[in-house]
Amino acid sequence: DSGVTQTPKHLITATGQRVTLRCSPRSGDLSVYWYQQSLDQGLQFLIQYYNGEERAKGNILERFSAQQFPDLHSELNLSSLELGDSALYFCASSVEAFGGTEAFFGQGTRLTVV
Amino acid sequence: GENVEQHPSTLSVQEGDSAVIKCTYSDSASNYFPWYKQELGKGPQLIIDIRSNVGEKKDQRIAVTLNKTAKHFSLHITETQPEDSAVYFCAASRAADSWGKLQFGAGTQVVVTP
Fold it and tell me: Residue of A7, B75, B104, B106 with fewest CB within 10 Å of its CB?
């Protein structure tokens, strides 16, 4: 158990809908990352937050947004869902925000868009 | 940006044999190289990492080597066991003056047959 908690584990929704994925980082970790894992794209970095502030953006679509709350949990919001958004979404956390910091992953949320 | 290539994509080994996975990276500023193991239905688990000031690191049956000049690093698993069967990912991130997002390789499916 990495200590990173993601909910829900599975999510099935229809195209055009909006969903929210939730992540609680390891105790003491201030940085949260979101990654998308699909069969054809592998693990892709989406966005990083550190202590409530956005720090880095990767290949995140405009339909997607995230935030980190004062209690350090984070939410990833996916809207106007398309079939191609079906993937595993992972949250990871680390103590620091900078490169070279060990990052620990949650179990992921499997999103299926039908 | 950083590009990480990983080979092979699949690797079948007999129990007790060694397994080697190789990765190359493109960004000379990368200096942190973690390896993750992902079992079916689970999130990536950090198994070992290496920083650019070190050429080799060992942890029991697992070792990682880094060649900064050639920009490649490798994972070595000795005396493989069936529980080593999983997908292994290499990753790279930049120095401490950059944010901690990881660029992942495409993954290697390792199958250890008894």
Answer: A7
DSSP for A1-59 reads: --S-EEE-SEEEE-TT--EEEEEEPPTT--EEEEEEEETTTEEEEEEEEETTEEEEE-S
Residue contact A98–B96, C-beta within 8 A: yes
pLDDT tens column, B80-103: 999 999 999 999 998 665 677 899
Q: Which amino acid, one-letter code, is at B16? A: G
CA–CA distance, B50 with A39 (Å, rounded to integer)? 27
Chain A CB contacts of B101 below 8 Å: 33, 45, 48, 56, 58, 99
> Which of the residues B46, B102, B104, B108 would you substitute to probe the A interface, choosing the one with the greatest number of A C-beta atoms within 10 Å?
B102
